[in-house]
Amino acid sequence: MARPPLPLGTWGTVTTRKVRGGWEARARFRDMDGVTRLYSRRGKTAGGARDALTEYLRDKAAVDREGLVQDTSTVSDLLRAWWEIKEPDLATNSRDRYQATMRLHLRPRLGHVRLHEATTGRLDRTIRAIATEVGAETARQARNILVQAFGLALRQGAVTTNAAAGIETVKVEHETARALTDDEVRRLIQAAREWEAAGHNSSRPYQREILVSILVMLGTGLRIGELLALRWSDLNLAGDAATITVTGTIVKGRRQPLPKTRASERTVYLPRFVVAALTAWRDSRRIATEQVFPSINGRWRDPSSYRVHFREVRALAKLPDVTPHDLRATVATALDRAAGVDAAAGQLGHSSPAVTTRHYIEKLNMGPREAIDVMDSYHDNLGLAA
């Protein structure tokens, strides 16, 4: 039976022999092209020649493997290598979530495990533990990270199979989309007017503006971050086809030049009630700012502080469970029923109508209205009419 070849980047037994002027050490080394070659180095003593050859081969293996993850690398090493490739393509919010999942859940549980020890069973048990102890959404993201990271290890030859691909899919129960009723919309708008007109006890400058921004969300389906990132230069309020172009979002108090996804960078038409509200809002501003909805100090308004005000408004409206996400679902549901899911997906900036259907369109659990004519025709054809 033929002797199995050396693993790539390794060498066999080092032998020494006496030569003119000293000693020579020799060993066979399998290069990264798969060819095994004989290498040698000389020294004044046998030990010196052996040390010289060993050092040379060790350096050669390191150079050949530079940038590659090895089967003896740890999961932490793999995550670090994968992150260097992945990070530049992520939006800020996604970057923060990925980093938190790796730092808080993957590295503590798997960080010191070698890649050749990371079996599908071990990885699957880890993900199931995260789902139980932390939550399904975090577990789903952790699984996604491992699948991508071990895919990198597979491409780099550190493993022969993607052990993470066999992890059982994590099922996340999403809340059912909820569209506001006509009465709820009226109550929310009235509450916004009352909230703006109410006094406050703060000794600092205090901004009480929320009605126009709610109307914009109800008329466009914009996310809060997209809403607060609007600049007057993004608006075209003239003519019969007024538009808003979504070109950014707010993350941690800063305007990010790209929205949540590439599909989110879009232009949407404005209904007349939104045009009227924005025009009046622009004309009432005593200090001009590039932001449509600035903070009290004229900077970008943070979504977290906006949500505080929104919760105060919904409390006035006696709608304790309503969120800005519901306003977005209200727009999606109205468009779906009038023009179809593709129109709703385009309005919300989704790359796939499936996302819109799953998360934003309220299901009525009603049969189609067309069933009336179909079943009447069926009954008539049976000749059973009295």
Automatic annotation (TrEMBL):
CDD domains xref list: INT_ICEBs1_C_like
Domain called Tyr recombinase: residue spans: 175-376
Keyword DNA-binding in annotation: yes
Record flagged with keyword Nuclease: no
Superkingdom of this protein's organism: Bacteria
Keywords: DNA integration, DNA recombination, DNA-binding
PROSITE patterns xrefs: CB (PS51900), TYR_RECOMBINASE (PS51898)
GO MF: DNA binding
Cross-referenced InterPro entries: CB (IPR044068), DNA_brk_join_enz (IPR011010), Integrase-like_cat_sf (IPR013762), Integrase_catalytic (IPR002104), Integrase_recombinase_N (IPR010998), Phage_int_M (IPR053876), Phage_Integrase (IPR050808)
Pfam families for this protein: Phage_int_M, Phage_integrase
Domain called Core-binding (CB): residue spans: 73-154
Listed GO biological process terms: DNA integration; DNA recombination
Family (UniProt): Belongs to the 'phage' integrase family.
Name under which the protein is recorded: Phage integrase
Originating species: Sediminivirga luteola
